[in-house]
Amino acid sequence: KFINIRSKSLPSKNLSISIVDILGNQVEKILPLEIQDGIIKKNLSHYSNGIYFIVFEIDDKKVYKKIIVSQ
After folding, report:
1. What is the full DSSP assignment across 15-67?
2. Model pTM score
3. How far apart are CA 62 and CA 48, in angstroms?
4. What is the pLDDT of residues 61-70, one digit of tens each?
5. Cα–Cα distances in Å, from 67 out to 35, 44, 54, 55?
């Protein structure tokens, strides 16, 4: 199971991207070198079933996008 993350802000020096679980615990930090042509492809097959959030943080603003893993 893969997910493609695309954003107009990719890549950006000030952008931080992470994946957190429903409790807010950081599961994974996405590194800048994972960004290819403005797209991040993540393998979610090792994630447990549940709700996660992709957190885009730029400057002092955060945007959350919900994803559901069901395998």
Report:
1. EEEEEEETTS-EEEEE-GGG-BTTEEEEE-TTSPSEEEEEEEEETTEEEEEEE
2. 0.82
3. 24
4. 899 999 999 9
5. 19, 10, 7, 11
How far apart CA 67 and CA 12 sit, in angstroms, is 23
Of 30, 16, 10, 22, the C-alpha closest to 48 is: 22
Amino acid at 43: N
Each residue's pLDDT tens digit, 16-50: 889 999 999 999 998 877 777 778 888 999 999 99
Look-up of token digits 């393998």: 43
Confidence of residue 10 (pLDDT cuts 50, 70, 90): low
